[in-house]
Automatic annotation (TrEMBL):
GO terms for molecular function: dioxygenase activity; metal ion binding. Keywords: Iron, Metal-binding, Oxidoreductase. It comes from Turnera subulata. PANTHER family: OS06G0255100 PROTEIN (PTHR10209:SF751), OXIDOREDUCTASE, 2OG-FE II OXYGENASE FAMILY PROTEIN (PTHR10209). Residues 19-42 have a biased composition (Low complexity). This is Fe2OG dioxygenase domain-containing protein. Residues 19-52 are annotated as: Disordered. It holds the Pfam family 2OG-FeII_Oxy. Belongs to the iron/ascorbate-dependent oxidoreductase family. Coiled coil: none annotated. It comes from the Eukaryota. InterPro entries: DIOX_N, IPNS-like_FE2OG_OXY, IPNS-like_sf, Oxoglu/Fe-dep_dioxygenase_dom. Residues 271-374 form the Fe2OG dioxygenase domain.
Length: 424
């Protein structure tokens, strides 16, 4: 059974056969009241008091693997997500969300590592005029290429997508995640058979600790799911966003190719525009943001990611030993390079590690990531021959995308293990 508010979960959420409603969770127990029930698996960190490594270790020591698996399964079976947990009134997080001390100590500003340089700011690139003049395009390509070599991340403004569309998309995803649990849980599943799934933590059963976010996943390309499979609250907005983000993806792929000095149509020819997936995340308020994360440090597997975020913040990119914020810029869209482009570019571009801090603010953070993957999965991938020379031999061996993506989905979301696996 889930921990901190034992009574809460045993009485209504996890063992009930009737639909779960958030309104049944209005009288949470305070952590201290759990002293009347066994406290072996109860977290005792006090709110706003930063836990030391020793406290985390001591508290988690008795949290056995079998308890953890049971709690994780019970949480998944409840279909309430972390939004449902927080709506139930909890004031401490269940122990399976608590990350190990090494992760937690790295959450502190600069993680104890060296401070990022003052010019380590993720650039915002103005795309106005990208199709208008050769000089303007050259300047944009230089900025894009510079950002991809240094950070693997940048933001774009004047991308041609109306601001109303951005706002509408964020509002629609927020609307989905804020539906009553009994409505939203109809989409709760881990398989993507229908092309749509709502779930908490895509790697819940692979990872050592869960993260404080829920996600609506959807296949976008080569075709969208049947319309009646898409939640009505976000259906029209997602049809619209799919079109706009695909067009932006196409422009970006050209710029990325030009920045590498290869044919601008090369990524499109490799069908990277045609198999897109969406992960629309919701990071609700977390009562103990020092003990968990929103999304663990990882790299994205695809060629590039187009990410729309609201103004709450929390996304960070690895920079040296430290982390740099990707500060929300009104009207901007975040772009990052994925592992396969690092490989194709023979390490010219970097697929950088990034993470999202658990959200300590009352306002929920919303982000919508679109991943661009190849449709032709049986093709062989490796560094572009144009970028391989005697001075710079291929840094990766050739592999099939099917093997690559299988590897991605059977491991937990983590750092650079995918690129490292194919590295020669
Ligand atoms: O929520 C975010 O800003 C990042 C999400 C992300 O990194 C991902 O879905 O891969
Ligand atoms: Fe990511």
């Amino acid at each position: 059974m889930l921990t901190t508010n034992k009574g809460l979960f045993t009485t209504c959420t996890l063992n009930c056969s009737r639909p779960i409603t958030t309104t049944t969770h209005t009288t949470p127990r305070s952590p201290s009241s759990s002293s009347s029930s066994p406290s072996r698996r109860t977290l005792t960190f006090r709110r706003n008091k930063k836990p030391t490594t020793a406290t985390v270790r001591a508290t988690m020591k008795n949290y056995q693997e079998q308890d953890r698996l049971k709690d994780v399964k019970e949480f998944d079976d409840s279909k309430i997500g972390v939004k449902g947990l927080i709506d139930s009134g909890i004031t401490t997080i269940p122990p399976f969300f608590v990350h190990p001390p090494e992760t937690l100590s790295d959450l502190k500003p600069n993680g104890g590592g060296t401070r990022p340089e003052s010019d380590d700011i993720i650039p915002t690139i103005d795309l106005a005029g990208v199709r208008d003049s050769a000089d303007r395009r050259k300047s944009i390509v230089e900025q894009v290429s510079g950002a991809c070599r240094k950070f693997g991340f940048f933001q774009v403004v004047n991308h041609g997508i109306p601001l109303g569309v951005l706002d509408n998309t964020v509002a629609a995803i927020k609307g989905f995640h804020e539906l009553p649990v009994e409505v939203k849980s109809r989409w709760y599943r881990r398989e993507m058979g229908t092309g749509v799934s709502f779930l908490s933590n895509v790697d819940l059963f692979q990872s050592k600790a869960a993260s404080w976010r829920d996600t609506l996943q959807m296949t976008l390309g080569p075709k969208m799911p049947e319309m009646d499979q898409i939640p009505e609250v976000c259906r029209d907005a997602l049809v619209d966003w799919n079109q706009h983000s695909k067009e932006l993806g196409e422009v970006l792929m050209e710029l990325l190719c030009e920045g590498l000095g290869v044919n601008p149509g090369k990524l499109k020819e490799l069908t990277f525009l045609d198999a897109r997936t969406m992960a629309a995340h919701y990071y609700p308020y977390c009562p103990q943001p020092d003990l968990t994360v929103g999304i663990k440090s990882h790299t994205d597997p695809g060629v590039l990611t187009v990410l729309l975020q609201n103004q709450v913040g929390g996304l960070q990119v690895k920079c040296g030993d430290g982390w740099v914020d990707v500060k929300p810029v009104p009207g901007a869209i975040v772009i990052n390079i994925g592992d396969i482009l690092q490989i194709l570019s023979n390490d010219e571009y970097v697929s950088n590690e990034h993470r999202v801090l658990a959200n300590g603010s009352q306002e929920a953070r919303v982000s919508i990531a679109i991943f661009f993957n190849p449709l032709k999965r049986d093709s062989s991938f490796g560094p572009f021959p144009e970028l391989v020379s005697p001075e710079k031999p291929a840094r990766y061996r050739q592999f099939e995308y099917t093997d690559y993506i299988k590897r991605f989905f059977t491991k937990e979301l983590d750092g650079k293990s995918l690129t490292n696996f194919y590295r020669v």
